[in-house]
Amino acid sequence: MSTYVRKKTPGDTSWFVRDRFGMFIHFGLYSLPARHEWIKTREYISEEKYQSYFNHFNPDLLDAREWARKAKAAGMKYAILTTKHHEGFCLFDTKYTDYNVMNTPYGKDIVREYVDAFRAEGLKIGFYYSLIDWHHPDFPIDKAHPRRKDANAAELDRGRDMKKYAQYMRDQVTELLTNYGKIDILYFDFSYPAHPDAPAWMQFGGAKGKEQWESEKLIALIRSLAPDIILNDRAQIPQDICTPEQEISPKMMNLVDKETGEALTWEACHTFSGSWGYNRDETSWKTPKTLIDLLVRTVASGGNMIMNVGPTSRGDFDDRADEALQVYAKWMKRNSRSIYGCDRADPEFGVSDGAYLTQSADGKRLYVHLLDCPHASVKLTGLDGKIDYAQLLSDGSELTWKENLSYYDSAGNYLGTYLTVNLPGTVFKMLDPVIEIFLK
Ligand code: GLC
């Protein structure tokens, strides 16, 4: 039983907090230059040059069923695909702009292929939709816009009507929630409200927040079309989930409701190598241990995690992404019981440094993740007399423990009792060995 109250929200997060682990997929025209999804604005790429990516967009190796099979094998229970990123290019057949996949050499609705394939594999379906749009004629030329340094930027910006753009978003979100069956998550990205202390790059000139997006209206529309859908908070109105990035357990965000103290539901998103879109030359790929560490410590902190894949412009996952997904597949095959349906452990339980605890939602199973615990045994407090049985999760081999051991500080003062679980030498070669404890 979770030892804390989770704040109730409009969307249905019951499956979400059970499933814990998903795949993020960033795919778009930026996959052709292959050096980050913000490339258009980072390099002030001209409209004419960027159009060449549109003209050559033809992911001939794209097989959404293969994407889905790899996600499922990795233990991922849901996925979120970019339907439109900041570049404004739409991966779906939309009647509100010609800047969509149907008019590229590929000519097929990638969102449709994704939905059909992932639904067929039993995964929940999420859509990422960028609030920012560097292609739309009514989106202002602000300080994040690729045209901001053009000589005629001011002229380009004249007459742009944010209200028309807000309506465009409502129209497209209606298409996305109407034409593709039941959608489980809608993931907006992102607001940059003016704040005097915000870093310069966040200022962007011309704040973009709930007022500019007309978020109240947008969210009311969404709730009318898909009442149970899970919405994130990036349209600057808290909804169902907080979405910290590239953090494990975001202490800075204080993930509790300020008035009631109830725990907020949150999901951390991470990348294999730093960039969300395919980045050919990025060398900062995470090690297998880091990949497992991120997932374990996120769930041990009470959160979900989505790990991002950026397909190449050919439409498939590159070898590095495949290898990283294989790390998850191998570890989750034997250890997923310590992730699915688990949450942070009862705070009365303590564990040696470098080890982390997850606990089943019904409270009956406790998992000790040895991650960075270098000792031949692991210390646990608050568990004397409470263990019915213990085993190494990966091979189900019984483990023994000694309990009611006295604990003293280095000055010889008695501190209380603890128990130790004796570990086989084999654990030191394993990637996050897990002890499964059945509580009385
Ligand atoms: C950041 C990145 C954006 C990415 C998002 C994923 O906002 O700027 O490119 O899509 O994170 O959460």
Q: Would you state the CATH class of the largest domain?
A: Alpha Beta
Strand content: 15-25%
Name the shape in a single word: elongated
| DSSP strand tally | 17
Provide the list of bound ligands, each named once. alpha-D-glucopyranose
- Span of the ends, CA to CA: 14 Å
- Order of strands in the sheet with most strands: 5-4-3-2-1-7-6
Task: Tell me briefly what this model is.
This protein has 440 residues and is of the alpha/beta class.
Please provide a written account of the structure:
By secondary structure, the chain is of the alpha/beta class. The protein has 2 domains: 16-342, Glycosidases (TIM Barrel); 345-439, Immunoglobulin-like (Sandwich). The protein has helices spanning 14-19, 39-42, 47-55, 64-73, 110-120, 153-157, 162-178, 200-203, 210-213, 215-225, 288-300, 319-335, and strands at residues 21-25, 78-84, 124-130, 185-189, 230-231, 267-271, 304-309, 342-344, 350-351, 356-360, 365-369, 377-381, 387-392, 397-398, 401-408, 414-422, 434-439. A 7-stranded parallel β-sheet has the order 5-4-3-2-1-7-6. Helix 7 packs parallel to helix 10. It is elongated. Alpha-D-glucopyranose binds at residues 26, 37-38, 189-190, 245, 269, 276.
In terms of topology, how is this protein built?
Blueprint: H1 14-19, E1 21-25, H2 39-42, H3 47-55, H4 64-73, E2 78-84, H5 110-120, E3 124-130, H6 153-157, H7 162-178, E4 185-189, H8 200-203, H9 210-213, H10 215-225, E5 230-231, E6 267-271, H11 288-300, E7 304-309, H12 319-335, E8 342-344, E9 350-351, E10 356-360, E11 365-369, E12 377-381, E13 387-392, E14 397-398, E15 401-408, E16 414-422, E17 434-439
Parallel strand pairs: 1-2, 1-7, 2-3, 3-4, 4-5, 6-7
Antiparallel strand pairs: 8-10, 9-12, 10-11, 11-17, 12-16, 13-14, 13-17, 15-16
Helix pairs in contact: 4-5, 4-12, 7-10
This protein binds alpha-D-glucopyranose (GLC).
